[in-house]
Amino acid sequence: MAVPTLSRVLLVEDDPDIRALTGFALRSVGGFELEECASGADACVRAKLFRPEIVLLDLMMPGMDGWATLRAMRAMPETARTPVVFITAKVQTHEVESYRRSGVSDVIVKPFEPAALPDLLRSIWRRIHGEADREPA
Amino acid sequence: MAKLTASQREGFAALRRVYLAQVPGRIAEIRREAAALRRGSAAREALLELRQLAHRLVGSSALFGLPLLSAAARDLEQELDRVLAGAASPGGLDALTAGLEAAWSASEAGADGDRGA
User: Fold this and answer.
1) With the C-alpha atoms ordered A30, A35, A39, A41, is the resulting torsion angle positive or negative?
2) Cβ contact (<8 Å) for A119 and B2?
3) Which of A43, A126, B64, B78 could form a disulfide with A12 if both were Cys (CB 3.0 to 4.6 A apart)?
């Protein structure tokens, strides 16, 4: 079965500098239709209209953190099955599998190369849809 | 990774220039907050706010290619975790906030290599 094209990405990141850099990479280099949110609460509101195909979610945010945002999204019919990818600086290799068991599709570890983020996200998207990962050309 | 266009490269460079221009102010803000803690207002809320500033600096400076500053900010973040846990006093924050300025100066001098300021 063909892997659907990834178009709509919701980025949830409280740090405005990281959001600007990551957003530029996703929009300009990746060509995605991007919605940016500064908080989990805002993301839950905007996701209902935006209907993202995948959510990039910062784990450590003040107030509603990544886990709380994930739980809230899972409780909403619009995002109950939307893949969620955590972005975090604090993760051990053995924790990634535990995250996946908790409903997280994958984890992107900071720091990452911003310009490479679109390829990384598409690779995760292909894996989610069951296609064996391929080396980028 | 696909080769970046000139426009994309300039976009990344412009974002980095904006960020670098803001770094001294971010460090100054952290030093002000830390100084307030030393003057005796070490309320948990103030500690959490300072920790959040340090955490943001850890992540953003690493992404913008300033590993020395990111490492110094991580040291501060970890010390704040110890203060919040009651395992350390705010007095130890002095050297760590000074370390941010030292790391920034080193970055300006090119110690971060070709990704430096």
Assistant:
1) negative
2) yes
3) A43
Q: Please judge whether A24 and B4 are an interchain contact, meaning their C-beta atoms are less than 8 angstroms apart.
A: no
- Tell me the two tokens of residue B109: 């001098």
Distance from CA of B91 to the nearest CA of A (A): 25
- List chain A residues with CB under 8 Å of B56: 14-15, 17-18
Q: Confirm if B59 and A18 have CB atoms less than 8 A apart.
A: yes
* 3-state SS track over B30-86: HHHHHHHHHCCCCCHHHHHHHHHHHHHHHHHHHHCCCHHHHHHHHHHHHHHHHHHCC
The third-level CATH classification (topology) of the domain covering A8-128 is Rossmann fold (3.40.50)
How many C-beta atoms lie closer than 10 Å to residue A129's C-beta? 13
Distance from CA of A77 to the nearest CA of B (A): 32
Task: Say if pTM beats, i.e. exceeds, 0.90.
Answer: no
Query: DSSP code of B90?
Result: G
Cα(A92)–Cα(A45) distance, rounded to whole angstroms? 31
Tell me the chain B residues in contact with residue A30 when contact means C-beta distances shorter than 8 Å: none
- Residue of B1, B15, B62 lying closest to A20 (CB–CB): B15
Chain B residues with CB under 8 Å of A22 CB are: 63
Rounded distance between C-alpha atoms, residue A105 and residue A86, angstroms: 8
- Is the pLDDT reported for residue A115 higher than 80? yes
* Cα gap B34→A27, rounded to integer Å: 37
Give the model confidence (pLDDT) of A72-102 as tens digits. Answer: 999 999 999 999 999 998 777 778 888 888 8
